[in-house]
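Chain X:
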Amino acid sequence: MYTAIRSFFSLRPVRQNVSLRAARIGAAAIVLSQALDYLTTTIGIQLGAVETNPVMAPVVSNWVLFLFIKGLASTFLVWVTWKRPLAATLISGLYLVVGISNLLVLGQLL
């Protein structure tokens, strides 16, 4: 297990032999899921929601800084998961769940 985690976060991740199209779809899924998280969080904060992630709580009130961090995160995650479809699917799926959770909170606030 340690080896799998170490190889995932390696500076030279092992790329699979997948098509460029599949790699682009994985990258787009990550960027879109990050955008969904950014938008739903920003709207929620404006409507009075509270960020429950203690690491991000001080950041989300400054939308420019939050957007910058999301941009950096997207870039890093695309780089790490490039031509690694399982990793891209897992990460974008995780952030999709976060976005859906945020949408549920927005539904309660409206």
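Chain Y:
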Amino acid sequence: MNNIYEIFGFNPFFSSHMAQFLRGASEICEDYSGGSLYTFFGIIAIVSAVLIYVLKYHWIFDKARFSYRMHWWISTGSVFVLNFAIAFIYLWNFLSSGVLAIGCDDEFISVIFNLPNIAMFAIVNAVFSVLFFALLSCPSWPFLRKLSKQCFDQTPWKR
């Protein structure tokens, strides 16, 4: 999961120091044993996209009144906002307490602990989750969409 952000070419949007920190915080911070934050955020992005997909196409919002293009965009926006908020808030809290709680170098934390760096990673994480949601909700996946009662033919550009 570490390389998924780099495969799509997302890593140039935030600093190389942030990428190094997300790739393996345990290598930089002595008291942190959690491993890769890329994996943590990647799993959250995938799980949240699947959750919104299930809510939209197979459970609560699988009704005729929610089968319009606008509802696809609302679902996609929900995935974006949820993943942006999770990544931004978690990183902000993690880095603000990073020097004391996880034993990171003060100088290194000061390099990556800035609003644009954290916001850019949060945007990248949200875009990754939106791409995954769009792939899931693609109507060319008949084995997934045929289970839907009302929204099986919904696309971002149709209906």
